[in-house]
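Here is the promised in-class demo. Please do not try to memorize the tokens; focus on the logic of going from shape to residues.
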């Protein structure tokens, strides 16, 4: 009779690498004594001081997203290759690692979400701060009511050229940056008002209340979404910016790059 190892063992038979998602130090250490296996650590920070590390911008709640994003980053960094067989160990139910998924690295399913942070014009810290802000706004709303918001990040000069003011710009003479706690309060306050926020590569808030006027021809966004998403998507094809959009109507946060939807997250899941 076959033992469980014969059955479950197939999950990690002849794999090219083990990918540990946010392992504890002791869990990671155990792999040091395993022969002939490459170990890659993926997480929001390299808490275990791993030699091979891939950074996640957020702790994705959905395991499929977490693995897809982590592997996309690992492919980008060249620590794995297309077609590699990987044992991805992650936590689904508890604090510790409780799940192993066998996944084949597939360069074809490249979504661009990793590029959004690492290969964009804007600093990855800036993109991350804006994404976190949008998620936080989505969780709390404005005084309990759902709000929508549109942030256009990077390539600000070109974005300004493709847009016009809806009202006076409260950030006109200021030198404030995203990530700054005061600025987050201001951005949340202004998010009740119309138009887009324009943010520079380095995170400076260039303007609020911008009405975007990109060419929207041929832009394909999910059905049911309106002008905020259409303009947010289209501006990323006309410029090298990325857009992060919080929908007032369905509460989801979406990101667009090069005119394409590259990320869709439910703020309630974080
Ligand atoms: N071209 C644009 N540039 C900047 N902001 C815009 C633009 N078009 C619409 N908006 C902003 O988006 C808001 C919502 O518009 P609309 O309902 O058409 O968008 P939506 O994609 O359905 O977004 P939501 O899901 O939040 O309702 C508008 O009140 C306006 O503030
Ligand atoms: Mn709408």
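The designed amino acids, position by position:
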């Amino acid at each position: 009779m076959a033992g469980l190892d014969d059955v479950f063992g197939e999950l990690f038979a002849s794999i090219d690498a083990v990918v540990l998602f946010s392992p504890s130090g002791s869990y990671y250490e155990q792999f040091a004594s395993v022969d002939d296996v490459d170990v890659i650590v993926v997480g929001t920070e390299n808490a275990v001081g791993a030699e091979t590390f891939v950074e996640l911008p957020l702790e994705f709640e959905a395991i499929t997203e977490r693995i897809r994003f982590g592997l996309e980053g690992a492919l980008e960094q060249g620590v794995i290759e297309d077609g590699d067989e990987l044992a991805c160990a992650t936590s689904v139910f508890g604090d510790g690692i409780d799940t192993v998924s066998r996944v084949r690295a597939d360069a074809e399913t490249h979504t661009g979400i990793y590029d959004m942070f690492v290969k964009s014009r804007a600093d990855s810290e800036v993109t991350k701060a804006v994404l976190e802000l949008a998620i936080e706004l989505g969780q709390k709303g404005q005084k309990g009511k759902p709000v929508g918001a549109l942030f256009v990040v990077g390539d600000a000069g070109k974005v300004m050229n493709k847009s016009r003011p809806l009202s006076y710009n409260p950030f006109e003479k200021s030198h404030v940056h995203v990530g700054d706690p005061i600025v987050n309060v201001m951005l949340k306050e202004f998010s009740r008002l119309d138009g887009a926020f324009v943010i520079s590569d380095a995170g400076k808030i260039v303007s609020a209340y911008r009405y975007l006027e990109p060419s929207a021809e041929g832009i394909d966004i999910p059905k049911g979404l309106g002008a905020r998403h259409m303009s947010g998507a289209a501006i990323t094809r006309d410029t090298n910016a990325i857009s992060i959009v919080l929908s007032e109507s369905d509460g989801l946060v979406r990101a667009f790059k090069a005119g394409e939807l590259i990320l869709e997250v439910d703020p309630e899941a974080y």
